[in-house]
Structure to design on (256 residues):
């Protein structure tokens, strides 16, 4: 059986903040390989290292030790080329948008940074407006849109340059069930399955992680404590809920 190429390759990554001897260790010797077209969900308690890992893979933080490659490109040696393949969606509420501009104007501005032409922008907005149901929200100022609308617009911005890799920090936060379903279909059925985008995302929504992920990775105290494929998770869930599985995994690690 032919194996898919590894698109995100994280090797022995440690991230410390502050002086190396006394600083906080946010990630400790993390290794993870993610192949083409796979969706990997990061789970873990607050402070477990999920956002730090995403920011490190995105090139926003430099690892203290270890290496990361995107599509075979070493992030440390050729950061611009590696980052050109990445679409990044942060969890922060403000997310770098211009509050007095509408969602559409914000998207058009960020698209201009990628040298996209107006027909390309209109086509992208038309497709995503339909898939995410955000026709009216695009023409409100970012100061007035809901948190859910901001998430939709943030995903649109991450997709502007047609990236091969999507890094999404809590993308389904603030979304109603209807929009979560649309997000799931877009990510799983359209972007990953059809267009073979590789997705690494964090979430606190355990059931949604079960529904969308090919692989679930649970972190605690900056370390990977569980890396389980969807088919193996389903066997575990014959005897317990996904919440029980998650709590059992984290509690077992805490007791070590």
């Amino acid at each position: 059986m032919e194996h898919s190429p590894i698109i995100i390759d994280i090797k022995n990554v440690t991230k410390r903040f502050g002086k190396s001897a006394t600083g906080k260790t946010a990630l400790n010797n993390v290794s993870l390989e993610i192949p083409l077209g796979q969706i990997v969900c990061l789970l873990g308690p607050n402070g477990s290292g999920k956002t730090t890992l995403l920011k490190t893979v995105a090139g926003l933080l430099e690892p203290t030790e270890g290496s990361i490659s995107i599509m075979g490109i070493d992030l440390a040696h050729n950061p611009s080329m590696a980052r050109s393949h990445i679409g990044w969606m942060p969890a922060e509420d403000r997310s770098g948008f211009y509050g007095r501009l509408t969602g559409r104007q914000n998207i058009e501005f960020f698209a201009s940074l990628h040298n996209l032409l107006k027909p390309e922008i209109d086509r992208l907005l038309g497709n995503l407006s339909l898939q995410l149901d955000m026709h009216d929200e695009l023409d409100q100022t970012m100061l007035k849109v809901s948190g859910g609308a901001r998430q939709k617009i943030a995903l649109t911005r991450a997709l502007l340059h047609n990236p091969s890799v999507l890094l999404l920090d809590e993308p389904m936060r603030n979304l109603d069930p209807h929009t979560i379903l649309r997000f799931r279909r877009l990510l799983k059925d359209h972007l990953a399955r059809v267009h073979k985008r590789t997705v690494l995302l964090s979430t606190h929504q355990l059931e949604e992680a079960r529904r969308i992920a090919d692989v679930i990775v649970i972190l605690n105290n900056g370390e990977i404590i569980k890396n389980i494929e969807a088919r193996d998770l389903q066997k575990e869930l014959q005897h317990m809920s996904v919440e029980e599985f998650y709590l059992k995994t984290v509690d077992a690690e805490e007791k070590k």
In short: Strands lie at 6-17, 24-35, 39-43, 65-70, 73-74, 86-89, 165-169, 198-202, 215-220, 223-229. The longest strand covers residues 6-17.
